[in-house]
Amino acid sequence: GICNKLAWPIPPLFLAFLIGKEVSDITVSDLFTPFYVIIAAFIILGIISLMAPLPEVKAAGEDDSEGGAEACPYAASKTSVWQFPHLLLGCLALFLYVGVETVSLGTLVICGIIFIPKYINQATALKICSILAIAGSILVVLTPADISIYFIAFIALGCSLMWPALWPLAMADLGKFTKAGSSLLIMAMAGGAVIPTLFGYIKDIAGAQNAYWICLPCFLFILYYGMAGYKIRTK
Q1: Cα–Cα distance for residue pair 156/97, rounded to 1 Å
Q2: Of 148, 152, 56, which Cα lies nearest the Cα of 101?
Q3: Which of 215, 208, 84 lies closest to 162, judged by CA?
Q4: How far, in Å, CA of 200 to CA of 105, rounded?
Q5: What is this structure's pTM?
Q6: The pLDDT of residue 25 is above 60
Q7: pLDDT over threshold 50, residue 109
Q8: Helix-helix angle 191-206:85-104, to 10 degrees
Q9: Could you give the dihedral angle defined by the CA atoms of residues 192, 157, 152 and 127, in that order, rounded to the nearest 10 degrees?
Q10: Mutual orientation of helices 85-104 and 162-171 as an angle, nearest 10°?
Q11: Angle at Cα 140 formed by Cα 163 and Cα 224, nearest 5°?
Q12: Banded model confidence at residue 157, pLDDT cuts 50, 70, 90
């Protein structure tokens, strides 16, 4: 998460350095080389991760041979990762969060490491951030265009602590399904590709300011998850 946010200013500089052209002169074919470099970097990182002597990390109740049922009785009776409603709702919340965060160029996630959960618990942080982001979304749309841009900072501030708040709430009580659950949450990051695309579509139709309406239902769902969704358990 830290690297993700610190990397926001790097891609434009990276592309400008490799392409070596003015923005107005760039064509689609100019993007091939940067993406080849990016793909090569990911392949190298994948090989390094595969070969690195990383320790096996297990959550409470994940290993059936070590008293897993006693460590996490809620998960012991489940047969599939799809039987955890709080996880599935968390995946949707994360999908929406990453999407609207990308729209607003979210920053400041480092604060999450300092404050959560030492000074503020995950659910409270999610509620506060959702309310800030909802307020920012409404103000961006309803205020005059020449000042509305500044209220995007409210959205970014709201997004800043959502990742460290959402993840542990969705991962709670998964026991032996912890790894499968974390995989679902990682896949939910696809929201960062889907929602900005929808934002661009609405922008073309209704204008940039009105396109920010897409953020409102997303943040309202995240607020619901922080208030009630993460508590849902099935028998």
Answers
A1: 11
A2: 152
A3: 215
A4: 14
A5: 0.71
A6: yes
A7: no
A8: 50
A9: 80
A10: 170
A11: 40
A12: confident
In this prediction, residue 70 has a pLDDT band, given cuts at 50, 70 and 90, of low
Q: Which residues 6+ apart lie within 8 Å of 139 measured at CB?
A: 148, 151, 154
Residue given tokens 């020449």 in the structure block: 146
Geometric angle at alpha carbon 162, from 158 and 163, rounded to 5°: 140
CA atoms within 13 A of residue 45's CA, in its CB half-sphere: 6
- For the record, the structure tokens of 103 come out as 């729209």
65 confidence band (pLDDT: 50, 70, 90): low
Question: Tokens for 170?
Answer: 């969705």
Kindly report the length of the chain. 235
CA dihedral sign, ordered 76, 77, 82, 88: negative
pLDDT at position 106 over 50: no
Residue 130 and residue 155 in contact, taking contact as beta carbons nearer than 8 Å: no
- For residue 184, give the nearest of 100, 99, 94 by alpha carbon: 94
